[in-house]
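During the first year of the project, the team set up a workflow for recording each protein of interest as an amino acid sequence followed immediately by a discrete structure-token representation. This format lets reviewers and collaborators read both layers of information side by side without switching files. As required by the reporting guidelines, we include two representative entries from the current panel. The first entry is reproduced here exactly as it appears in our internal archive.
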Amino acid sequence: MKSSAEEISSLLHAWCDGDRSALEKLTPLVYGELHRLAHSYMMRERGNQTLQTTALVNEAFLRLIGSKQIEWRDRTHFFALSANVMRRILVDLARSRGYQKRGLNPKKVPLDAELLMSPDPDPDLVKLDDALNALSEFDPRKAKVVELRFFGGLSLSETAEVLKVSRNTVKRDWGMAKAWLLGELKGREIDGS
């Protein structure tokens, strides 16, 4: 009998090869995990969350299954890309709320208004995204570690598997990236940006 990880990987390959029934079998297997990851992330957010967990999962899943260019390698690859998609959704939403609040032209975010819980942007998420983008300019691997661990909820071992490095390398990168990001975020607070 296949493990859940093997079954998900097998279904992803079948789906990429054109088997439409594979997506029907895949959906219940990954949806619960996506929901758990999104919920875990949302629990770490400040109290003024702007999005319900289910809405985030639905939007991420629709974007993932709508992309025809992705050749899924395995379960870990799927959840790594899910982390990236969730990050983009949350940051886009936070930025769009900030633009609306300042009266600028908002960026269109395809989420229903009734799914929103608060009209206020999450400035910490936007600052984190800016800092993470700055980190990726000079150390893309450390930025990817943060994305996979923080936004994707991947373990050290799963992150190592995605990045094809050792678990110890991921652990080192994770510690260094967290320290760098903390310094960057504190510097941004002092600069007032």
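The second entry, processed by the same pipeline in the following quarter, appears below.
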Amino acid sequence: MSIFKNHFSNPKYHNQMKKRIILLSLILAIGSIQTTISKNKTSVDSNKNAKSGEKTFTVQADQALALISQAAQKISIQGVAIVAFIPGDATVSWISKMKVVGNLTHDKANLLAIASTKAAEMADTHLDSGSGIREIYSGELGYKGGLIKKVNSGFILAVFSGGSGEQDLEVAKIGLEWLSKFY
């Protein structure tokens, strides 16, 4: 017992312990700073990717809508086309463009509203509209006709409403394929 008492009461031992505690504190502080820097760099990189994705979308959206419109006219359907970009891995915002291809409404159906519900479903599930992956939420219709694709900077989607589900998918696919070439 006296060996331990003498060892712990030794001032030299206390100085060594203080140095070790200071060194350990410095190591922990440096590790914490490196973690913070790494997280900030990841956040900055993600933000740059999102901004790049938005810029790409802005440049290519009109052409994607024009291609969807041409494809719809080719198979003689009219309706509404929407393309959108969702930055990041979770839907907290998006940018979109819409184009009426012939008619905004048809037989008391608001085709823009229907196209929007397809897009809204995809924004939540990150799956093509009408996937049946979950029950249909209030405000959704569960219709097919919207396609979504994961890209490096987020998600891109294309929707058409005005034909059958298969026709809507056919023309939406052309717009999505066009957009995806740029991501």
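For the second entry, the following points were noted during internal review. The mean pLDDT is 87. The longest strand covers residues 79-87. Both points are flagged for discussion at the upcoming steering committee meeting.
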